[in-house]
Amino acid sequence: MTGPDELLQVEQVVKRLITRFPSVSPVDIEHTVHSIHGRFANGRVRDYVPLLVEKAARREIAELVSGSSVVPTVAQAAEPTVVRAAAPTVVAALG
């Protein structure tokens, strides 16, 4: 995927999330999406970046909406959300 194609898809993610979360400020949604997109800046495989950005942004925004009756604006947010991967699980072979 080329840079312009990826950016176009990320902008489409912003539009979809604005429609999906009408109670959240479009500016906050745009900031969230672009912030998450920035996390993938050094990724070598770009094909799935827009999909991964949308999934992470949707989860983050949904948590904000369900976690409180008042959604904080970008300026009010104390710290960015950190996404951590779960520890790998070791499965013993039965034999």
Condensed summary:
With 95 residues, this protein is mainly alpha-helical.
Annotate the secondary structure layout.
Layout: H1 3-20, H2 26-39, H3 49-67
Helix pairs in contact: 1-2, 1-3, 2-3
Supply database-style keywords:
single chain, mainly alpha, Helicase, Ruva Protein, domain 3, globular, 95 residues
Quaternary assembly: single chain
CATH class of the domain at 3-67 equals Mainly Alpha
Pattern of helices and strands: HHH
**Sheet with the most strands, sense and barrel status:** none
Question: What portion of residues belong to β-strands?
Answer: under 5%
Note the overall shape: globular
Q: Assign the CATH architecture of the domain at 3-67.
A: Orthogonal Bundle
Low-confidence stretches: 75-83
* Structural class category: mainly alpha
What is the CATH third-level topology name of the domain at 3-67? Helicase, Ruva Protein, domain 3
Q: Termini, distance in Å?
A: 45 Å
Q: What is the radius of gyration?
A: 16 Å
Mean pLDDT: 80
Q: Roughly what percent helix?
A: 40-55%
Total of DSSP H or I helical runs spanning 4+ residues = 3
Count every beta strand, where a strand is a DSSP E run of 2 or more residues: 0
Protein name: Three-helix bundle dimerization domain-containing protein
